[in-house]
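ok new one. same drill as before - structure tokens go in, u give me an amino acid for every spot. 320 of them this time. try not to just spam alanines like last time pls lmao
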């Protein structure tokens, strides 16, 4: 089995709105995959369908080689899910929550849970209802890892946590899961977190997976080009790969998917005084790529860093 997660034309409607549109997603085993998108893009619905909490209207999803709709108990025990907000029984102590969770998993690892609680400095005697948001997130992670899952699915796990707690949470999660060769898929609004830990990213726009590639590839694929004219900026004719453009005084700010020789030639044909290519981090690239309005573009298929060919599974598409 090469993929821990695989979907084929996965689709979900809410009323007349298609919130997930023919989603084809593959997450290789051992990957940390960050699923990104603005509010309403469809990522949370996707995560819930993978977790079996929402049923698709069409298509299918497989986890660890089995259809989500008919997961066997043995395979289900190899998968962990952390819901947004970290819902827990607030009347329990941490120790009671651990005992309750472990009872469902014959192969649970109590020592791993104990190590995590010690790492987070959490006493088993503390009531969950009296914990902070960050502490509840830490308890949720410890409980999710109790059965030593092969696949961990997280829905915005660091939402509402302060910077220090977020970082500790993510680093602990990655260290524990990856050293055992496990797979993680998580959605997040915090792009700095994704950049820190994700090997691969997917970007959803209006229910469609527009990006599916290594995180570094996406950062290098999206380019902001600042063109200074020192005069009234001329109009730029349609150029393949142009996502957006903005006029600011005597310059134009252009955002491209890729910026190759043909695109540079089109810009230079306008006789600018200077052309500056701006390096962007993952958050900047995401904001520019998902900013509206955008031009409808063909699929992007070249590697702007190495000049080679991108694998068929590595795609960065223009958003409609």
């Amino acid at each position: 089995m090469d993929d821990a997660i695989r979907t084929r034309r996965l689709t979900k409607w809410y009323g007349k709105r298609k919130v997930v549109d023919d989603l084809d997603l593959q997450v290789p085993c051992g990957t940390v995959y960050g699923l990104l998108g603005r509010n309403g893009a469809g990522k949370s619905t996707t995560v819930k369908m993978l977790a079996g909490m929402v049923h698709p209207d069409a298509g299918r999803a497989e986890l660890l080689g089995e259809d989500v709709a008919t997961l066997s108990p043995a395979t289900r025990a190899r998968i962990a899910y952390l819901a947004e907000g970290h819902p827990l029984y607030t009347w329990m102590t941490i120790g009671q929550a651990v005992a309750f969770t472990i009872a469902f998993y014959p192969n649970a690892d109590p020592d791993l849970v104990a190590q995590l609680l010690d790492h987070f400095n959490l006493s088993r005697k503390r009531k969950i209802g009296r914990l902070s948001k960050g502490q509840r997130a830490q308890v949720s992670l410890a409980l999710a890892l109790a059965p030593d899952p092969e696949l961990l699915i997280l829905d915005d796990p660091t939402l509402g946590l302060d910077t220090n707690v977020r970082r500790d949470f993510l680093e602990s999660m990655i260290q524990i899961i990856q050293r055992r060769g496990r797979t993680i898929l998580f959605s997040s609004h915090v792009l700095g977190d994704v950049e820190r830990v994700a090997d691969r990213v997917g970007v959803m726009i209006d229910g469609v997976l527009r990006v599916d590639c290594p995180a570094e590839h996406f950062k290098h694929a999206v380019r902001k080009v600042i063109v200074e004219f020192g005069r009234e900026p001329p109009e730029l004719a349609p150029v393949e790969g142009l996502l957006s453009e903005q006029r600011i005084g005597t310059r134009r700010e252009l955002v491209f998917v890729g910026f190759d020789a043909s695109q540079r030639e089109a810009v230079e044909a306008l006789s600018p005084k200077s052309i500056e290519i701006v390096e962007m981090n993952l958050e900047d690239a995401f904001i520019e790529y998902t900013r509206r309005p955008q031009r409808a573009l063909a699929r992007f298929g070249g590697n702007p860093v190495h000049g080679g060919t991108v694998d068929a599974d590595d795609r960065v598409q223009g958003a409609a």
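The domain at 219-305 is CATH 3.30.70 (Alpha-Beta Plaits). and btw The chain has two domains: 3-206, 219-305.
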